[in-house]
Specification:
4 helices; about 40% strand; alpha+beta; eleven-stranded antiparallel beta sheet; 11 strands; about 20% helix
């Protein structure tokens, strides 16, 4: 498999991974969606940091796995000189709509759009027509929503509480966790997560990841993910072929 294909698959994996994190806190602009949940939190209890930061992050992960839907925007840069901008819509248990703009180190630009509906997956490259994919991306999506991700955090991660912060005026608790060999040997991830104090959900993550692409070198990537529209009424249907 060529490096570009591996990079695209890695980007898809990153886009699907619920607990993916990223690089630096982005400035709010008129095109940046609010990080707040679509569910009213007026009467929600206020979350406070506990004496066990690992338990706090596990609670947030479980809450994200329980969400029936969400949207997220993801920006990734890596040491190979590539950068990827992704927008993801997700509806539980296994429907997703993903758009990606990939600026590769070669200077080429790759635009890709994917729709996953249960066992069926569809891919659109650039301005080409939609094609049904032979890959079962629904299973891939299910794997990244596997509760074993939480087990990995519980068993492997080093977790610490960094303090309080706000996103778009919404109070957050900030945690950092480090997981080694998450997706295989040499694939290490350090993540900062902003967790809402009224819904216990992750609203932003920042991560740095070292990934072995099987090319004899480690690719270092930085990603920023903004989550929004939790539990919104999102419709994802197969495209017209």
């Amino acid at each position: 498999m060529c490096f570009q294909s591996k990079l695209q698959i890695a980007a898809l994996c990153g886009a699907l991974l619920i607990t993916t994190a990223c690089g630096s806190l982005p400035k709010k602009d008129e095109n940046t969606p609010s990080s707040s949940s679509s569910t009213s939190t007026a009467d929600a209890p206020i979350l406070a940091a506990s004496a066990d930061p690992r338990a706090d992050v596990v609670k947030a992960m479980k809450a994200s796995l329980d969400a029936k839907s969400f949207r997220k925007r993801m920006t990734t840069t890596n040491s190979s000189g590539s950068n990827i901008n992704s927008t993801i819509e997700f509806v539980a248990p296994n429907r997703a709509h993903i758009t990606q703009d990939m600026n590769l180190s070669s200077g080429s630009i790759v635009k890709k759009e994917m729709i996953i509906t249960d066992k069926d997956s569809y891919v659109k490259n650039g301005d080409a027509s939609w094609q049904k994919s032979p890959m079962d991306l629904g299973d891939l999506l299910a794997q990244f929503r596997d509760p074993k991700i939480i087990d990995s955090l519980t068993e492997k991660a080093e977790v610490k509480y960094l303090g309080a912060d706000t996103l778009d005026g919404v109070p957050m608790l900030v945690y950092q966790y480090t997981i080694k060999d998450l997706l295989g040997k040499g694939n290490n991830m350090v993540t900062k997560a902003w967790i809402g104090t009224t819904d216990s959900l992750p609203h932003q993550t920042e991560s740095e990841t070292d990934m072995d692409m099987g090319t004899g070198k480690i690719i270092h990537s930085k990603s920023t993910v903004i989550y929004y529209d939790y539990n919104a009424d999102i419709k994802i249907e197969p495209p017209t072929l």
